[in-house]
Write a structure and sequence with these properties.
single chain; alpha+beta; 8-stranded antiparallel β-sheet; 3 helices; 30% strand
Length: 220
């Protein structure tokens, strides 16, 4: 009788363990499905926001294409394109015509302007007459880098002032670009301080000491 009781108890215990495992898997599947639905909802909302911005920015003209004949290079840069925003507003992302797509980029500065050749995104040209200056900064379009780790070029397109952010593989290239772009901008150059337009140009020399830190961090 004792042996039968022990056998029955062992059978009940084994059944309980099996039931617990089924319950655990059911809960786990429920969590996975819930998480997948949540991620899908977030992605859908982001996509809707992207489409909404593209609609609002529908009045922005097509980007100037690369010139058929390239001018003599003054400076060249290889790195990443981190996005564009309304000038002075680092979170007001511009997504029209592919400007919202982050990508690898090769920049060439000539007397005619800046050629931007991108991987997996449309190329475009910034005419010298459209340049409004350049500065060293640390963030654009929601992307935050080290202080002075970002080259921001301000330019005018279709009546809109635009900030475009680039990060060179070697941050030591940034100050030379700031100097040359500001030179080409001439009296058209503008500067921005704390998101507001300023009447004075930024002194880029104050940011040069951040170059070493950026080089150690490496391109992201």
């Amino acid at each position: 009788m004792t042996a039968l009781n022990l056998l029955a108890a062992a059978t009940v215990q084994a059944a309980g363990k099996h039931s617990a495992k089924v319950t655990d898997w059911t809960d786990r599947v429920g969590w996975i499905v819930g998480l997948a639905l949540f991620v899908g909802l977030v992605y859908w909302l982001m996509r809707q926001g992207w489409q909404w911005r593209r609609t609002l920015q529908g009045g922005l003209p097509e980007l100037p294409p690369l010139p058929e004949t390239a001018g003599e290079p003054l400076l060249e840069l290889h790195g990443r394109y981190h996005g564009s925003t309304t000038a002075g507003q680092w979170l007001d992302r511009i997504v029209a015509h592919g400007l919202g797509v982050r990508s690898m980029a090769d920049l060439t500065l000539t007397d005619e302007g800046i050629d931007v050749v991108r991987t997996g995104a449309p190329d475009f040209h910034i005419p010298a007459t459209a340049l409004r200056g350049a500065r060293l900064d640390k963030g654009i379009a929601g992307k935050v880098l080290t202080e002075g780790g970002l080259l921001v070029v301000t330019w005018e397109h279709g009546g809109t002032l635009i900030d475009s952010g680039f990060r060179a593989d070697h941050a030591a290239d940034h100050p030379a670009w700031v100097t040359e772009v500001n030179r080409l901008s001439g009296d058209r150059a503008v500067a921005f301080t704390d998101g507001k337009q300023d009447d004075t140009k930024d002194d880029t020399h104050d940011d040069v000491h951040h170059v070493t830190q950026h080089d150690k961090e490496g391109a992201q």
